[in-house]
Amino acid sequence: MPVIGAFCVSVNREVCINAHMPGKCATCAEVCPHGVYALDPLSGEMRIVNYNACVGCRICAEFCPENAIRINPAESEYVARYPWTLSTIEEIHYKAQTGEYLLRGFGTQHPTPHFDTITVVPSQIASEAPRDKYREECDMEVIIGKDTCEKPIHLKLPFVWPAMSFGALSKEAKMALAIAAAQTGIATNTGEGGLVPEEVWFARGYTDKAFSHKEWEPGGYLIIQWSTGRWGVSVDYLTSGDAVEVKIGQGAKPGMGGHLLGAKVTKEIARVRGIPIGSDALSPCRYYDVQTLEDMKHMVDFLRDVTDYQCPILFKLGPSRPYDDVAACIEVGADAISIDGLVGGTGCSPDIVTQGVGIPTIACLPPAVQALKDYGVHRQVKLIALGGIRNGLDAYKAMAMGADAVGFGSAALVAMGCRVCYACQKGNCPYGITSQKPEFRARLDPVETGHRLANFIHACAEEVKILTMLSGHSTISDLSTEDLRSLDLNTAALTGLKLAGYDRPLSFWEEGFKSISKDGNGHKRPVSKEDMALD
Amino acid sequence: MKVLNAKSKDLKTISKLLKESLNNQPIEVQNASHLHGLAAGLKHGEVIIQGDAGDYLGVLNAGATIKVTKNTGSYVADNMTAGTIIIGGNAGYGAAQYCYGGIVVVRGDAGNFTATMNKGATIIVLGNVGAEVGTYMLDGDLMVVGNAGENFANYLIRGNVYIRGEWESLGHNTRLESLDEEDIDKLQAYIENYQFEATPEDFKKIVAASEKPFYH
After folding, report:
1. What is the pLDDT of residues B47-67, one digit of tens each?
2. Beta partners for A247?
3. Residue ranges of domains in chain B, CATH in brackets
4. Which of A162, A393, A416, A496 can bridge A407 by disulfide, Cβ–Cβ 3.0-4.6 Å?
């Protein structure tokens, strides 16, 4: 795997253990996911063999027992050598040598329009007065499936853990997410790789299979993912959760199926998924058992039937044509729709796809919300924003743009200890998050990590609360685009938000929506192929 | 035997009636061709569908025996994990996909994409099958007594594919192998159990050329 970033490693040889006693310490070489360091087998000396491969994750610096390593960004080549930067050159060399394309995890690397160019508008005298964060209440509960199923989900906070499969993540990481969900009253998601049995009771706050001892209050929810690979899917799997999520796509690789590299398919993963040990698990890119929207409707029907009409049915979309995709989900009867943006992507994906396919998270939300409004179900069918949400500020902005809840995928991994080395797919995660190797997994304690994740959620919830109340609201469902302004023309054009200073949306934006939503009421999807044939 | 007439009833009603009365007796369902996803996720019991059935019949079946006297729509026995589904007539597009276990017998023909991603079930088609049958099969047995269409057993990973007739074209990652004694015993048992005319020695066996055929 070639370079994806250009950082400089420097080792202080005065304190480096290996420099004094060759052969004694090889920690940096052991933990580096990209082979920057190598131990000379004869002399035992540590050498930096591949300066160019450093992505700046600083894992080596963290593990170095003598704190001898410094990582500095290389000089900005985007100014001096663009487009022929070092990473571009290395990428071409890699392809020329191996004939293979780049494959990696963790989403986009280059700057992409994101929440940073949006600002929050506080309340002053002309609008509703601000509310007091310390002495007043803020309602953050989100209910999914309120009128459609017998057991709706009551999220205590407007957050979910998005789908990350068992296989992609270690068992311990999945358990930690479930424990955190139980501690904060949110929902965790099985992902498409089958079930980790402990998730079932951990997510609800219980420590044992018999549900006799409740350790974590208030108890959360488990969302079961129904996906194109159908790994480990049975009736018992579907009925062990509180909701079923139908995966259509994901931000890392919209239009492609899940991809688990053979290196991570251990005996246990192979057993759960029903594939040979060490072979790539390649989910199909589409449902082989769905050809039309009508079929999808029937699929939702039988999923409801199998779960005894109790569980909400969720849909997860990649960033494609949010308006039409969300409209289609509403038509087939979704109770909630997650929409993942280009910025998202914990999944292993070809570099060109994770980097260059799909539209940014901030551009997904306005059309999705418009579709919900056109069908008259906004805030009723819940919209969950995913893709590069890092903190309460991003979460607030997504909710003000019309989402009901947000998911923290990459941020959850980072909260578990990840340092973003872009090598999840290799299965050598030194923190045991995305590794299946026992020696790395032993480093991740599910309870302790679960507590870290719960802390992160609580902190983000407080951030959302601060912002909600300073903009004069006492419930998150009252947030609206009026609470935001875009800071540049580009963002104003992408999102339709009012431009700061100009204080109104760009004029073409209103026209834009009129043309796709026709009369703005009861818009139907584009005509089907059969109808077109009749014309 | 209890008889349910599904005429102008919806899935929820029929499904509730079915689950209530399944415990002690076989149930016959009539006029059910408008219901999609009928008899989903049953763990035991016997259901007989009199006449044609809709799409997704017996989806997620986990142990029930389901018999259909005539034809079924698309995706019959989808994601089945255990049990038996026997179809007297033809099965539509994508029969027995994503199955983990159990037995599916189609006495007539089956459509395109039959037995896709089979992960351990036994699927027997006495007639002909369409194109792309047995795509990305990960385990289990597929037995076709008639002929097959294009791209037969495409990207086979594991499991055995037996066919008596001809195929239009064979998919990627496939290899012909001669039958051994175990295969012949197995095929003989299927022939006896499901009572049809065939000689085990007439079948050809297709297996995966490699367990890891994909790029990367």
Report:
1. 999 999 999 999 999 999 999
2. A316
3. 2-208 (2.160.20.60)
4. A162
